Fold each of these.
Amino acid sequence: MSGIDRRSFPVVLAAPSGTGKTTLARALVDRFDDFEFSVSVTTRPPRGTEADGVDYHFVDGREFERMMDHGELAEWAEVHGHLYGTPRAELDAAARRKEYVILDIDVQGALQVRRSTPEAVLVFVLPPSVDTLLERLQGRGTEDAAHVARRLQSAMEELQHATDFDHVVVNDDFQRCLGEIRGIVEGEALRTHRAPGLRQQAEELRAGIARVLRNEYANANG
Ligand code: 5GP
């Protein structure tokens, strides 16, 4: 960004499971150099090829509790029987690097970020239809009916909070959706409260104009 110093901020993506938000979050980080992924802590055991420190920081219940008690989490929630949380250190490190950190978290967590981290921008991702949501949830193959039903139940609850978010996108066309999220971040980055030097810069311009008025327009009327 040229001409003025701007603060970066966390970008929270939340959506009912099966909306494709993890794929969106990964694609944003792959495509844009100034986006990075927030690695959460969780008490859930690793799945498949998941690696510690990459997909999650895998911790036990005691360590999770210790982090909570020490105020090391910007938010946390219990999702499908496991604890998940965002380390404040992830957000602070991204802010120092002036990068936009993407939080791929559940709706309860997103609403906590709103309170704990007011500079964050909250984006709700809507599935295009019930059929697509169902297709994605069933398409995972490994999920039994009870599992799918549980996720549909959560989706119903999460959709109630869509209006509490700052922005909404629909994941019907993946590329368009990515572009829209990028657009949201670019627009938010231009807000005056994210430019810590704005007052001083405006004052310097005013001082410059005052000099010109004194030196060159002292005798002009009106
Ligand atoms: P999974 O176990 O399938 O990776 O994630 C299950 C759910 O937990 C997803 O909805 C995911 O977005 C959410 N989740 C992952 N990390 C966090 C986190 O740090 N905080 C919260 N609140 N939710 C998380």
Amino acid sequence: MITVKKVNNKIQKQPLKGMVDNVLEQFNSAADQINLHPSIRKILSITNTEIIVNFPVKMDNGEVEIFQGYRVQHNNALGPYKGGLRYHPTVDIDAARALAMWMTWKTSLAGLPYGGGKGGIQIDPSKYSKSELERITRRFTFALADNIGSEHDIPAPDVNTNAQTMAWIADTYMSTRPPAERTANQHVVTGKPAGSGGLEGRDRATGYGVFLTIKFWYESHNKSLKNKTFIVQGFGNVGYWAAHFLEQEGAKMVGVQDAYGSIQNPKGIKVEDLFNYTKANKGSLIDFPEAHQVEKDDFFSLECDICIPAALGNQITENNAYLIKAPLIAEGANGPTNVEGEKVLLQRGVTIIPDILCNSGGVIASYFEWLQNRNGELWQMEEVIDKLEKKMKHSFVRVSDYAKKEGLDMRTAAYCIAIARIEKAYIQRGIFP
Ligand code: NAD
């Protein structure tokens, strides 16, 4: 039983464990559940490769700044490493390790021929001009050099990186290959702009997948999304698209939090209105006229049916899980709920659709983009959406059925399926030499 410490009727916030401890605890509990082979537990508990690069970039004022970038390759038993690049002040080697591990479980669960990797640069991109960000990205790509590659390690967008960032990476990578290899290597990254090797629909794929898992959950409980209320933390790529599709299905957005502030309106916040407002307001929702400001720490206590954390890791913890009113949490972000926070929620009967299932639409669409590039094809939006929906449904049903059959929560069930697939590959192939 988790108890919350109160002093003078105020909650005492507990110091939080790091994300690596969190992902390893989740992994070990599933490994115990499936009685994972001890050698494979050892292999999966560590990362294969960790790369730290320091590189200089000329700023607009002519001065040179040094940046630190990371790429962690956790495991490639099932195929090339796959995972995003994040530009954020919280990026460090530990965060990259944890996020790379989550990618291994996610790609395995989705049945993709990929392993897991993650990386990024420890910067606040809002402090740099577009041309500085371009030079930072290109120089980072150059520094990573052969540590990434279309059949080796394939980055994608994550927090504060987007299709433009991917286009710069692809261009730099291809420009530094020998002439005969240049055009054959555009699938070194996915999430590129449609028109430069990108996939129609990749922009919305993660948020659409988040929406689908919520819809599947409602359908499996014979309920409709009509007039259901939701709150979303993070109104970027994932949060916006998830909200967009939920609203289309008749649900109502009643609260939003981003890096700048939190707002609520129990009567509803129009998704496109907020999107247009944030676009015109440097990405911030501050002073959006059709809502009231809320204190940051009160955000998760807003009344709603669905809570969607779609920003950073370690957001729902033992310090605030008891505040959550929603009976359903759909993890758009990677690692938004820590182990202690999850215990509180599960004790209270809250369902969590875990990140490695909920936000897997992004990497599934990335796989489609990679196939499209590799085969020299161009896929249409309808085809992408249709294929994505089928794959998400398959994963959702497998996880739900497994959870029911074994009496587990959805996260442990998802981990069990993901880890068992990697175990099987190791057992079939053995360990070199
Ligand atoms: P993004 O950069 O497009 O948007 C991030 C949003 O989070 C922004 O609205 C930002 O203001 C907000 N934010 C940042 N710090 C915050 C804080 N401390 N509190 C509240 N809000 C904060 O990023 P994204 O691509 O939407 O990624 C969001 C999450 O989804 C990340 O955890 C990422 O790893 C995960 N994810 C993304 C994808 C993808 O395809 N982009 C795929 C799978 C998972």
Amino acid sequence: MTGQLVVISGPSGVGKSTICGEILKRLVGSYLSISTTSREKKAGEQEGREYNFVSKDEFKRQIAADNFLEYAEVFGNFYGTPRDKTLSALEQGKIVILEIDVQGAKQIKEQYPDAKLIFILPPKHTELQRRINDRGREEEREIEKRLAGAGIEIAAAWRHYKYMVINDDLEQAVNEIIDIIRR
Ligand code: 5GP
């Protein structure tokens, strides 16, 4: 393995996707892994861009076939990192970015102790609620689940992540993360 593995996690609504998009644009040789998920595709999402969308049965078949480098159940749906594509990007020397949750990050850390684990925090708790509401993607019950999950995830992050970055100002957060990756 010649590339570098970077895990980026954070609660729902913290701005992970925007940050990862900026890193991809600015960091030469970076590659963002597209996860497979059993969750429903939402409005504005495209097959193969945000995720590879599959049924629960298909996801389970892929677990049995050992297709995932890591996988987890998050908010009642399965999400996993495709093994082959990720390893081949690493073999090509890429900086491979995994936008995954804390359970997935732990699995990656066990297999790849050199992986850099970065957790993104909101400047304040109310900010998450505002951002999740603003993007208008989830129904009320789904929003409640995501806000409740945020507290648990942030608590776990203090134990498992070496780097914590606050996303108050996007530009500053992206620069900080690029610095961490280059270090
Ligand atoms: P969403 O449904 O909002 O797109 O994602 C929900 C959560 O699943 C987020 O915390 C996201 O980081 C996580 N997630 C997305 N892809 C993966 C994956 O491949 N593996 C794991 N473990 N978590 C993922």
Amino acid sequence: MSVSHAKPEMMLRGIAASPGVAQGPAFVFLQQALDVPCYQVSPEKMHEEGKRFESALLETRKQISQLRSAIADRLGEGEAAIFDAHLLVLDDPALIDETLKTMHSTGFNIEHSFHMVAERYIAFFSKLDDEYFKERVGDIRDVSVRILHNMLGLSRRTLAEVTESCVIIAEDLTPSDTANLHSGHALAFVTEGGNRTSHAVIMARASKIPSVVGVASVTEQVTRDDYILVDGYEGVVYVNPSPVTLERYQKIQYKHGEFQEKVFGEVTLPNVTADGVPFKLSANVGSVEDVQIMAHVHAGGVGLFRTENVFLKHPNRVPDEETQFQAYKSLVEAVLPDRVIVRTLDIGGDKQHGILMSGESKEQNPFMGFRAIRFCLENKDYFRTQLRAILRASAFGRVKIMFPMISSLDELLQAKAFLKQVAGELEAEGVDFDKNIPVGAMIEIPSAAIASELLADQCDFFSIGTNDLIQYLLAVDRGNERIAHLYEPCNPAVLYILRYVISMAKRKKIEVSVCGELAGDPSFAPLLYALGADSLSMAPAVIPEIRYLLRRTTRADLDALVKDVYAETDARKIGEILRNFYTMRLI
Ligand code: PEP
Ligand code: MG
């Protein structure tokens, strides 16, 4: 598609979420709310209703088959197999017969009759204590929503169906939306909701997809035939940019390209400061595919493996022990001789999974709710499966296990006791694993930070999750664009708690790393390193820039930085000190 000069340029402002500039045609991703009508039909009309049902089933079959072959071509047969399960649901005579029977006995229209039957099936399978049947819930839900859309004449979109390169415009994106998208097809993301540390944004940043979030009513202002330019540095979106804007951005992109070249010129140089002190930079990853970019940027191992991404890639099934083991083992082997910190499942909050959470009722405050270690300690079957897979993978390389969202010593001890039990089971089965696997906790809840002295006695290492630590400390939902201005890492309370946790880890002589987004932020990386963080873990794409920056520091500058920052009480001024420190070194 070419740039439309007929339409006037419109500029929209949002929050700069993932850096970079990109342009392309718009793809407006909107889900229509599914409002299933309910009315009585006369017996004479029931034959016609049955016919409508039949043609919706045929249309659904056609769509699923098309989707199946598109995914098979693009991603391979393995990824396409999910649609075979969907076709099986469509073939289930019980679902079809019961729908017709329900219509005849109740006199309700076919959509409502089908909806009642499908919901009954979903409720029944969700309650079964069997993983296979639980997985079927997602398939039934997916297929029934598709059938309903077809009966109601609505079109349903998923990002897996995006087949051309475009700028994706959405109300909001979930991590599974982004996980399902074939990376080459999203040039940029623009959303109405979200914040810099929402998980979909973290994934966009890891994939180097420029993003602007919090753009009010963008889905109403943009249509399919608009051309979009996204500036992920400044948080600005141009709808139908003028030739002048396009030319200006050509220059900006050229300048950024030049800077990246300079930074990449040092990618193979050692991680040592200007006065010869070594530093460690590792990568935050979500799958084994990230290893390629890790090698490209010379990352020193994996400081955070977000294992939930292995689950989110397939929202309609739960990977079994073997699938998880293979995923973890491939990563662990690929990263050797470096180590991988494998974080156990951090599901919940903005990371909802169709099957794992299917039996749970909707929460008022998901970020403060049934998430991460809380979910695992109450779902021991899933937890056991994952721990077995991680422990088995530990026999193939250097693995550390980390528990997310620890809020108390008791919770940490429960998680450790269960890990010990699972390790004992594996040992009894004669399965090989690392018997001395280090175990650590994420420090991302204020209570854990305050109790870090106690927790350190029970941990081999800490990793500070600044994304959550800031949201819980400041009571600012990390995904809510309305209060994004309050999500302020320079708030002195944040700086005090970071300094405290690092000092406690030092006092107790355990390793401490930082794996939240602040670790890869050039304003914060020098401060965190200066405070004593043993390693910084970040999206692989930003490693070269942080390396370039730390190579231009000395202990004396870092000490002066700490002194200046902690002498200041105003968040805005602290921000200026931090920005000045890095801009002076990056020019
Ligand atoms: C964090 O909270 O800082 C973190 C690294 O974990 P996540 O972003 O996955 O919640
Ligand atoms: Mg977290």
